[in-house]
Design brief:
32% of the residues lie in helices and 24% in strands. It is an alpha/beta fold and 570 residues long. The strands form six sheets. It has a nine-stranded mixed sheet with strand order 2-1-11-10-12-13-14-15-16, with helices on both faces. Strands 4-3-5-6-7 form a five-stranded parallel sheet, sandwiched between helices. The radius of gyration is 24 Å and the shape is globular. 47% of the residues are buried.
């Protein structure tokens, strides 16, 4: 019996209809991924490879499940010896270091709640997270000035953070991981099953991008690990004994979609390329060298890949390719298909969930479509009155949950009952995205009900960027929107009303951009800056970002028309 079969009603399906009708998850009452998956593999198949890791400096780490379990036990004992226990919040800011995976398992064994974070966070990002989540410990890698930012945030928050562990060598005020870890026991005594966490207890927290305010804390239960079987086995189509590569670092929810839970339960090895900076050619070289079998990346990465001469790379080892994070341009789909023979299968989901919809293995993918709904989530498109819309009509993507917890959907926004009720009421979880459904049951993305910006695979909320821009003394008012970009999908635009005494100059644009770069994560800075005399507003004084976007779209349309006329006259 495979490990996968312990947790699903049925492993293989003949059609999408078979999948929808006959798939279900079997969730034990006290499920814990560390004990019920990692330790089981470590005992039954100790030499089975879990992780294949490499970087740009000719370093390589390959971990079997036995090695992974022992290292996780050492980290758990290290954390326990420093006062970390069940319910404590532990932040992991490890980029794509291989230490992330045993650290996750260690926290699960402790019962500590894990909060992954991107290495691009700045002091004020960290202060907000330390205070909001009461983070007690952090494990981090040296990346740019990250550790300085952490030290400053710790000082600014009055000692909320008690423990700092560096995986990058000795540093004042930090525990040196390398010198401490080998002195820790690699044995960990698992508690009796009845004394472990419940499957619906909190296990993992991700901060959102702050689409309508400051970032919210998305809390997932232990059973989310089982729900990721659907992502790995039935959307990414991973193979038992294969090698799966999802392009995402550990600070983003996409990492746990594609580099941990579902892949291991379904038998695949996980590949990690810890690059210093994304480079399409180097990425392709690693994919070929390590014989990646299934591949997942955001559309931005595919846009870079198709610009390469793919005939130089033997990509025959890749059997399946998928994407999510933002809508996939059909042109990218067809170019990749022409160059590789692989059909990119798109899916839609959120930090709050697993995939809502996907182009499943039994389906003929429709370029540009998000695919068809997931069997365990009761999806509906509803109008503003909460009524289900007809085929072909636009509606908000919602999940019918009733009053029960669904594995694969978050528990709520931690410490924010008001925001949870705003998104989750009257038996419906409101995703905040609009779509329509065609006659075959495929969903097509229309746009967001809020103002989130998707740039290079990152989700950016306007409020956070506006807050950073507004800190510059020259700025009186600011509106952040996304504008189309052929490479990044969207780029961030700041429409700014200047304070008295300031003149709109190119030098000031650059100064504001640099200011934002240094005061929040660099990917959030506005690549486009426009100075205006006033912002469009509603009667109540709210900024009309939609009007700004419409103005920008008209400019793009006019430019495209002029280019088409020019080409026709050549």
């Amino acid at each position: 019996m495979s490990l996968l079969s312990k947790f699903v009603s049925k492993e293989n399906f003949s059609s999408y209809q078979d999948f929808m009708q006959n798939f279900s998850l079997k969730v034990p009452e006290h499920f814990n991924f560390a004990y019920d998956v990692v330790d089981v593999y470590a005992e039954s198949e100790p030499e089975r490879v879990a992780l294949v890791w490499c970087n740009d400096h000719e370093e390589e780490v390959i971990l079997t499940f036995a090695q992974l379990a022992r290292r996780a036990n050492q980290i758990a004992n290290l954390l326990k010896s420093k006062g970390i226990g069940a319910g404590d919040r532990v932040m992991l800011v490890l980029k794509s270091r291989h230490e992330f995976w045993p650290a996750m398992i260690a926290c699960h064994k402790l019962g500590a709640i894990v909060i992954p974070g991107t290495h691009m966070l700045k002091e004020h990002d960290l202060v907000y997270r330390f205070e909001r989540a009461s983070i007690k410990a952090i494990m981090a890698v040296a990346s740019d000035n990250l550790m300085d930012e952490i030290d400053s945030a710790q000082a600014a928050t009055g000692g909320i953070l008690k423990l700092k562990i560096s995986v990058s060598g000795p540093r004042d005020g930090w525990i040196d991981y390398q010198s401490e870890i080998d002195s820790c026991s690699d044995v960990w005594q698992a508690p009796p099953r009845a004394e472990r966490n419940a499957s619906d207890d909190p296990m993992l927290v991700y901060f959102t991008s702050g689409t309508s305010g400051m970032p919210k804390m998305v809390t997932h239960a232990y059973d989310i690990a089982l729900a990721y079987i659907i992502v790995a086995k039935y959307w990414q189509n991973i193979e038992d004994g294969g090698l799966h590569y999802t392009v995402a670092d550990t600070g983003w929810a996409k990492c746990i979609w594609g580099k941990l839970y579902g892949q291991w339960i379904a038998g695949s090895k996980v590949f990690v390329y810890d690059y210093d900076k994304f480079d399409a050619e180097k990425t392709l070289e690693k994919v070929v060298k390590y014989k990646v079998t299934t591949f997942c990346a955001p559309p931005t990465v595919y846009r870079f890949l198709i610009k390469q001469d793919l005939s130089r790379f033997d990509l025959s080892g890749i059997h399946y390719a998928v994407t999510a994070g933002e809508p996939l341009n059909p042109e990218v789909y067809y170019q990749f298909l022409h160059k590789t023979g692989l059909r990119i299968r798109e899916a839609f989901g959120q930090t709050e969930s697993i995939v809502f919809t996907a182009n499943w293995p039994w389906d003929e993918p429709k370029p540009g479509s998000m695919g068809r709904p997931t069997p365990t989530l009761n999806l509906a498109l509803v109008d503003s009155d909460g009524k289900q819309v007809e085929v072909g009509d636009e509606g908000e993507i919602c999940l019918k949950t009733g009053d029960k917890h669904l594995p694969g959907l978050f528990l709520g926004y931690d410490n924010d009952a008001e925001q949870t009720r705003a998104r989750w009421h009257e038996g419906l979880y409101h995703a905040g995205d609009m779509a329509w459904k065609d006659a075959d049951g495929y969903l097509w993305f229309v746009g967001r009900a809020d103002d989130v910006i998707k740039t290079s695979g990152y989700r950016v909320g306007p409020f956070e960027v506006e807050s950073a821009v507004m800190e510059h003394p020259s700025v009186l008012e600011c509106a952040i929107t996304g504008v189309p970009d052929p490479t990044r999908g969207q780029v961030i635009k700041a429409t700014i009303v200047l304070a008295k005494g300031y003149e709109p100059t190119d030098e000031l644009k650059k100064e504001i951009q640099d200011f934002v770069k240094h005061n929040t994560a660099p990917y959030k800075y506005p690549r486009v800056v426009e100075f205006v005399s006033e912002l469009p507003k509603t009667i109540s004084g709210k900024i009309r970002r939609m009007e700004i976007r419409e103005q920008q779209q008209k400019l793009w349309a006019d430019a495209a028309a002029k280019e088409a006329q020019y080409q026709s006259e050549k």
